[in-house]
Amino acid sequence: MKLILAEKPDQGRTLASVFKTKKADGYIEILPNTIFPEGAYISWAIGHICELVPPEKYHPEWKKWALDTLPIIPDQFQYTVTKDKAKQFAIIKKLVNDPKVTEIIHAGDAGREGELIIRNILRLTNAKQPMKRLWISSLTPKSITEGFQKLLNEADTRSLYFEA
Q1: Residues in contact with 74: Cβ distance below 8 Å, sequence separation at least 6, in sequence order
Q2: Which residues contact 53 (CB under 8 A, 6 or more apart)?
Q3: What angle do CA 1, 6, 117 make, to 5 degrees?
Q4: CA-CA 20 to 30 A from 57: which of 16, 22, 75, 113?
Q5: What is the mean pLDDT of each run of 10 residues along the chain (164 residues)?
Q6: Domain residue ranges of the chain, discontinuous segments joined by +
Q7: How far is CA 24 from CA 83, 101, 107, 143, 157, in A?
Q8: Which CATH class is domain 2-51+79-163?
Q9: Model-level pTM?
Q10: Max Cα distance, the chain (Å)
């Protein structure tokens, strides 16, 4: 079974609309069909579900900054889940860790920001499944269907994540 992660709830619902589905809290189950013979789950971020941790989480002395401590650049940037979006993140994490999920389809917006939003979620959920990329610029039924039939490999859009 595949897990499809969209960037926004309306985007997730639109992607699911070309299939027979069952709705659940925070996700939609796509019933088995020719594109997804085992069915699929589709869930979504709510935009930026993750945010950079504040400077003092890296070093307490960065809480009150001064000109001589600027620029504040940690060795590795870290992210955390925003409190107001924790429920949706928990739903995604549960789906990612579902043993039936064998592959993840990144269905965020085509571009750097969409790449960052979904990949940060996958990093924070410790997703280990292989990932494919849905790359479409239109949400028409034809574009959605063709996009799911021609998924990109994860490596094809990895550089956009690094840029973001």
Answers
A1: 55, 58, 59
A2: 78, 79, 80
A3: 120
A4: 113
A5: 96 97 97 97 93 91 84 90 95 97 95 90 95 95 96 87 76
A6: 2-51+79-163
A7: 22, 16, 19, 25, 30
A8: alpha beta
A9: 0.90
A10: 61
